[in-house]
Amino acid sequence: MTTLDTVRPSRRGLLKGATGAVLLGFHLPSRHAAAQSAPASAPPELNAWVVIHPDDRVVLRMAKTEMGQGVRTGLAQMFAEEMHCDWSKLSTEYVTPGQSLARNRVWGNFLTAGSQGIRSSQEIVRKGGAAARMMLTQAAATRWGVPAGECSAKDSVITHSGSGRTLRYAEVVAEAARLTPPADVPLKDPQQWTVIGKPVSRLDTADKTTGKQVYGQDLRMPGMLVAVPRRCPVFGGTVKSFDAAAVSGKPGVRHVLKVGDSAVAVVADTFWQAKTALDALPVEWDTGENGRVSSETISAILDEGLTAPEAFIGNQQGDARAAIAGAARRIEATYSYPYQNHAPMEPMNATVVWTPTRCDVWCPTQNGEAALAAAAQAAGLPQTACDIHRVDLGGGFGRRTVHDWLADAILIARQVPGTPIKTMWTREEDMVQGRYHPVTKCRLVAGLDAENRIVGLHMRISGQSILSTAFPGGLQNGRDPVQFQGLNAGGAEGAIGYTFPNLLIDHAMRNPHVPAHFWRGVNHNQNAIYLECFLDEVAHATNQDPLALRRSLMANHPKHLAVLNAVAERIGWGSPAPAGVHRGLAQQMGFGSYVAAAAEVSVERGELKVHRIVAATDCGHAVNPRQIEMQVEGSFVYGLSAMLYGACTVKDGAIEQTNFDTYNVMRLGEMPKVETIILPSGGFWGGVGEPTIMVAAPAVLNAVFAGTGRRIRDMPLGDQLRQRG
Amino acid sequence: MATLNINGRSVQVDADPETPLLWAIREHIGLTGTKYGCGIAQCGACTVHLDGVAVRSCALPLSAVAEDQKILTIEGLSPDGTHPLQVAWRALDVPQCGFCQSGMIMAAAALLAEKPRPTDEDINEAITNICRCGTYNRVRAGIRQAALGGTAG
């Protein structure tokens, strides 16, 4: 039998070059997998999840992708919890989607997004670990001729309680692998966990401190060429003409190519040669109708949607319109949120070897299976003739769940058959060919009774639907359910934390031509600003304490309330803040978790300084508190970067921001102190990579209002505080 | 043909003089720990030392680097990953995706070489590298720990 190990090219093929750089082996074992026989020394596969080497190393196979969020370590903890293996000898490797296809998707879904890494695979991974332990224990018991119930396992060693005899996992793995996997795999009660819940160090830190960690950008193969593409900067536009002869004689240039209908590329010996030639390449684009679109025209379309009669309903309780019409007082406000680019530190790239019968790809992707489907389509080959060999990501944030860049890389490699082609985007290409956080506006109207109680709330969202671009199949009779994240009446993903006697949340879908996509935090980012800042407005307009107003609406939402109370208590809500410092609050539920934040800020001469943030998270089960802290801290950087600076604007159909000089992000010196409170209430599995982003901006914006009386309703903040209010 | 002194050895690089040092390091010499992030000296992922000073190699043409100037990359920072910053980075789990971390560490190493006990303001001024995962607070803690000789957090 050919074990999986023999068809694993991504790591096996890595060779150390003379300079210390990592080279990919010229041989691509997957191409020849069927012809290969397993080497005699190949360690046996115990089950799909795990290989145990003779020296006791345990290798866990992973379908999810590591992009910094710590999923490698978290999955390993869950696996080790049940397998009882020696943590110090545990490592991981990626399986390929091709292997998964061939084995009936034994590793489950590869999608690593939506803060799903842990929660969507916790059961299958824990059961994989438990089944491995049961089979190993049974094998030892059989060898000893004793009941398995008399044997226990710890740190990769099985002990027979009666005789004290021991066997290492590695000594019985061959016999264990021949056993029928157990049908019934009981899992530990959370009370018994000893690895899950511990702040263990990451498994992948060391190589990230020495430069040894290999990213897609770093891949090298003998004979490899580098391609740098440029796609029509106006989405939907095409190549009218280009003058290849003008640059084909430049140093190192091998090919000047058209890529599909909409892009060109220069293939050269090095990136710098390709980029330099591409910059000099004359290209004429046909931008079509979209070339007339601007941020102003998009804004006008969204404005129309704010009061349009037709809209998709997201959450409806009672009759909000009637309640507001009959209310003693109305408060209303309109907010807006712009396009954002994911801007991961590593621009898009993929290394491809295409032949008429086979296509292999090495790339950073958040979804190996989707990458395989995209690759096969672009390669003109069946999925069984293609595979995706993953490397860790230099950031993902949702951008690497969609594979437009990979399809183009394959269309380039198809024109240079048999030659490894590394296609690398410039930062400029990455900025203008993004898949953007959608643009929306929101008009909120609250009706109050004579005692200033909210009797009705209408929240009208106008703007772009992600699913319409990213996954039209997910639309429900045209309605995009993702639009209402955090505003839903219930559910595990994003339930509103307030009860209003009458409520209407609806969405006038208006889709400009700029492609929208999932962006860390997704629609929670703006939905939380809209609702949490508007409630703050209502509180201040009616002389109510913002915390007290929220609490009055949260009696039916104890988990939302618990995290809000936790941050309020820790920040000292209700007690005086330091001189010149002002506080703001926000809470939201999303990605299965409940989060809240309290911020302390000061504003002097229009300059905002965020001093301190307290964040609370209830993610049900907390797998690794240290990782959660890291994700919470990082969420503030991502969320506040967008709030402070982030905006992609449109001119003549194209995105105007081309690099970090015009798409600024937060730096170290702006970073507040972050105190993380983890409140795992148990009984469910929530995400942690994204939820805290939801509350970062509204907590700070509410603090800004407390300090200045300025209500910031249009993101980003930019220089609004320096302008006269 | 340019001659570079990199990580203590002299290497010949057959590249156009206008080629940024970053690409000579990555593509000609084959040291890929130094990253391309922006190409316009904004993000700092390409930070290396030139005669002990942190520079952004993506915007520094080979023609501006003299033969006797000492270039240090992340691969040359310590022979075995035991520079105090690398030790602190591992102790605190500073990196997330890790892509920016070579540049972060090189920027921090230049800071510590100049100011062994940097203040918070010193750190703010010296570390302007971009990290999208958001490791800033741990970067600061790592620098502090390294400055204290790895004895405190």
**Numbering strands along the chain, what is their spatial order in the largest sheet of chain A?**
12-13-10-20-17-18-19
Mean pLDDT of chain A: 93
Widest sheet of chain B: strand order? 2-1-5-3-4
What structural category characterises the helix and strand content of chain B?
A: alpha+beta
Largest sheet of chain B: 5 strands, mixed
Protein name (chain B): (2Fe-2S)-binding protein
Keywords (chain B): 2Fe-2S, Iron, Iron-sulfur, Metal-binding, Oxidoreductase
Domain 2Fe-2S ferredoxin-type (chain B): 1-77
Organism (chain B): Roseomonas populi
Task: Write a brief structural summary.
The complex is a heterodimer of chains A (725) and B (153). Chain A has 725 residues and is of the alpha+beta class.
Structure description:
The complex is a heterodimer of chains A (725) and B (153). Chain A is globular, with a radius of gyration of 27 Å. In chain A, helix 2 packs parallel to helix 4. Chain A has a 7-stranded mixed sheet. A 5-stranded mixed sheet of chain A has the order 15-23-22-21-16. Chain A has 3 domains: 43-204, Aldehyde oxidase/xanthine dehydrogenase, molybdopterin binding domain (Aldehyde Oxidoreductase, domain 4), CATH 3.30.365.10; 216-288 and 348-424, Aldehyde oxidase/xanthine dehydrogenase, molybdopterin binding domain (Aldehyde Oxidoreductase, domain 4, 2-Layer Sandwich); 295-340 and 436-722, Aldehyde oxidase/xanthine dehydrogenase, molybdopterin binding domain (Aldehyde Oxidoreductase, domain 4, 2-Layer Sandwich). In chain A, 57% of the residues are buried. Residues 1-40 of chain A have low confidence and may be disordered. With 725 residues, chain A is α+β, with helices and mostly antiparallel strands. Chain B is α+β, with helices and mostly antiparallel strands. Chain B folds into 2 domains: 2-76, Ubiquitin-like (UB roll) (Roll), CATH 3.10.20; 84-147, DNA polymerase, domain 1 (Orthogonal Bundle), CATH 1.10.150. Chain B contains 5 helices and 5 strands, in the order E-E-H-E-E-E-H-H-H-H. Chain B has helices at residues 21-28, 84-92, 101-114, 120-126, 136-147; strands at 2-6, 9-13, 47-50, 53-56, 70-72. Chain B has a 5-stranded mixed sheet, sandwiched between helices. In chain B, strand 1 (2-6) and strand 2 (9-13) form a beta hairpin. Chain B is globular. Chain B starts with a strand and ends in a 6-residue tail after the last helix. The mean pLDDT of chain B is 96. Classes of the chains: A alpha+beta (725), B alpha+beta (153). At the A-B interface, helix 6 and helix 16 of A face helix 1, helix 2, helix 3, helix 4 and helix 5 of B.
